[in-house]
Design a protein that fits this description.
- Residues 24-289 form the AB hydrolase-1 domain.
- The chain is α/β, with parallel strands linked by helices.
- It folds into two domains: 2-129 and 217-306, 3-Layer(aba) Sandwich (Rossmann fold), CATH 3.40.50.1820; 131-197, no CATH class.
- It contains ten helices and eight strands.
- It has helices at 37-49, 76-89, 102-113, 130-150, 157-170, 182-186, 201-212, 261-271, 285-288, 290-302, and strands spanning 2-7, 10-17, 23-28, 52-58, 95-100, 118-124, 248-253, 275-278.
- It has an eight-stranded mixed sheet with strand order 1-2-4-3-5-6-7-8, sandwiched between helices.
- Helix 1 (37-49) links the parallel strand 3 and strand 4 (52-58).
- The chain is globular.
- The two termini are 33 Å apart.
């Protein structure tokens, strides 16, 4: 069931699947400024078939929700208030939450602020420290740029310059911030930019087929309104992992570069739980390996008090 629900002065697009009495499962998308569309199209029905009431939301200002209001100014806390108001509107006492990428960071903040409203938390390739993400991903981008330069008929000088900039940023002796615009250093990859997020050619093809099937009328450009949230991604949230009290798991695709090894290690040390790795997947495991993804999440939710197995 799809609907527009008035929440905190704006209308949010909500996609619900499964029985009304199923276990409530909220999906928080990342981006910043993406949508729940790809998650719901890939695994929404599969989770519903497992007895979940799956709730996908386009955050305020994104895709099928209303254009972002001028007031209040967009912050992570505003999004968290929206999630809480939606829970109350739906008449739910609590719910399980999956947060993907920067949505994992929002979900983490939500769990810290409202632990009594969350049964269990799945951090899916979470962007908990963009400085660590960039330092892990930029060298890979540089290698791809060098490779592209080698096959450039015009000599590839611009690509080599971009590779050098990626390496410079990765080795700065201070924390990176949104002002460093690291994403801009990687953009010369062009069509190869997606290779930083997907496992291999076959899973990339799967992702592109899915996105190619999206309705033509969807306005993906609305997500640009969430760019101000980029600065929040450079806050090191791993420092707060010891404060997490709800049952949780950290789930990654084997070649994901958003939740780097240092973040995984801090999560293990802070929570005592292991990290669940989905083989043959990158950053979008729910698209690249949907059956394995649903199985991994369902196994954790069968016994969330034990953390990840």
């Amino acid at each position: 069931m799809e609907s527009l629900i008035e929440i905190n002065g704006t209308h949010l697009f909500v996609d619900e699947r499964g029985r009304a009495d199923g276990r409530p499962l909220l999906f928080i998308h990342g981006g910043p400024g993406n949508s729940c569309w790809d998650f719901m199209a890939s695994v929404g029905d599969a989770f519903a078939a497992r007895g979940f009431r799956v709730i996908g939301v386009d955050q305020r200002g994104v895709l099928r929700s209303d254009v972002l209001p001028h007031e209040p100014g967009l912050t992570v806390d505003v999004l968290i208030r929206d999630f809480e108001a939606l829970r109350e509107h739906l008449g739910l006492e609590n719910w399980t939450v999956i947060g993907h990428s920067s949505g994992g960071a929002y979900a983490f903040d939500y769990a810290l602020q409202h632990p009594d409203r969350i049964d269990a938390l799945v951090l899916d390739c979470p962007a908990l420290d963009a400085d660590a993400t960039d330092r892990f991903r930029l060298p890979k981008a540089a290698a791809l740029l060098d490779e592209a330069a080698g096959s450039d008929a015009d000599g590839g000088a611009a690509l080599r310059d971009a590779a050098a900039e990626c390496r410079r940023l990765a080795t700065l002796d201070r924390r990176l911030t949104a002002d460093d615009r690291t994403w801009g250093a990687m953009l010369p990859l062009g069509p190869h930019y997606l290779d930083l997020f997907l496992h291999d050619a076959s899973t990339r093809a799967r992702y592109e087929r899915l996105m190619g099937a999206a309705p033509d009328h969807l306005d993906w450009g609305k997500g640009m309104s969430h760019l101000p949230l980029m600065a929040e991604m450079y806050r090191d949230q791993t420092l707060q992992l010891t404060q997490l009290t709800v049952p949780s798991t950290l789930l990654i695709g084997e070649s994901d570069m958003v939740a780097p090894p240092v973040v995984r290690d801090v999560y293990r040390a802070a929570t005592g739980h292991d990290v669940v790795t989905i083989s043959d997947a990158g950053h979008f495991a729910f698209v690249e390996q949907p059956e394995r993804y649903v199985d991994a999440v369902a196994r954790f939710l069968d016994a969330p008090g034990e953390g990840a197995a």
